[in-house]
Amino acid sequence: MSFTFGVTTTAMFGRGRLGELHTQINTPAGLIHGKKALVVISNGKSTRTNGSLDRLTAELSKAGAEYVIFDKVSANPTKPVAEEGGRFAKENGCDFIVALGGGSVLDASKAIGVMAANGGDLWDYVQFGTGKRQWPSNPSLPIVAIPTTAGTGSETDGGAVITNPETNEKTGVFGPGTMPVLAVIDPELMTSVPAKFKAYQGFDALFHSTEGYISNKRNEMSKMVAAEAIQSVSRNLAEAVSHPEAVEAMEKVAFGSYLSGIQMCVGSCVSAHPLEHALSAYHENLPHGAGLIMISKAFYSFFIRKHVCDDRFIEMARLMGMENASKPEDFITMLEKLQKECGVADLKMSDYGITPDEFEKMAKNARETLGVNFDNDPCMLSDADCVAIYQESYC
Known about the structure:
Layout: E1 10-13, E2 36-42, H1 46-49, H2 52-62, E3 66-73, H3 79-91, E4 96-101, H4 103-118, E5 143-147, E6 160-164, E7 169-173, E8 182-185, H5 195-214, H6 220-234, H7 237-242, H8 247-266, H9 272-282, H10 288-306, H11 310-319, H12 329-341, H13 359-374, H14 383-393
Parallel strand pairs: 1-8, 2-3, 2-4, 4-5, 5-8
Antiparallel strand pairs: 6-7
Helix pairs in contact: 3-4, 5-6, 5-8, 5-10, 6-8, 9-10, 9-13, 10-12, 10-14, 11-12, 13-14
């Protein structure tokens, strides 16, 4: 029963809630007070073409806040971009950050907020791998997180996943103030995401909670949150992927994604995430969710064969819709079914240039950069076990 719950982000959840953002900026009861915002978006075109950026800037103008736009964040945000964003925010006198985009944008904004307030080298503040493990002296600039995808749950946790291209490390960045002050979770912003990316993101949300569900750090609070997230995502993702107009299904997936973010705060993820991070650290064009899908069947099957938490896999199969599930393998059946329904069952590592001769270095990379997640596994994975999971996943 022991747990610590400290999710401090205020969440405005629901269709149309972006239109209320101005009530939270520079008002007596508002959460954000500042003259100028750094608006962080991706280096793509989606937020400009689908109108979400215009809607956001209109809200800032209505609140009397100036803004500048930083639009250099890629799918796997990097250390140099985070450092550049920090300098840009400081040079332009920004008081707070508004992150509009997917998990990469939200993560980059947290690192940018730390750099704007502290300067120096981002890896000074990284607690893993080659990071210098210094704790930032100053809190991040206040962050408003507005996700345009349902996947990472980054709008409600304090962690940022950043890649250092010099060391091929993809790891977590934390610091005081990196938990967003406000999250605006509006599923209307998510419906226009292309189907395959919506699927990748949805599976990321699902796996945050399936990992938490089998973690040896699971507690009654994280179990409760993860169970609802697994059910919400798994039972609505295929509909949201195949029917962009299905706002209700998208809303339920977004709710599951939000809960998965809370699960990571009160519970934990396991080694699947660092195993994927190693893949996309060396192959930055690989979307995180796609990499997780690629290794998922082999990863979860490893623990099923070990019979270390059979009851938890049976429970997850039931949450995903198989009411008569009676054996742990039923979870794999439901996982495969959902991947087929979402059109992502045939993803191949080879399509992203990944080769089997990389698996040993990737297994070591995963443990060196986020070894803490391996400690949460239901039983210990050796490097040889990690290589075997990669090999079983390869095609």
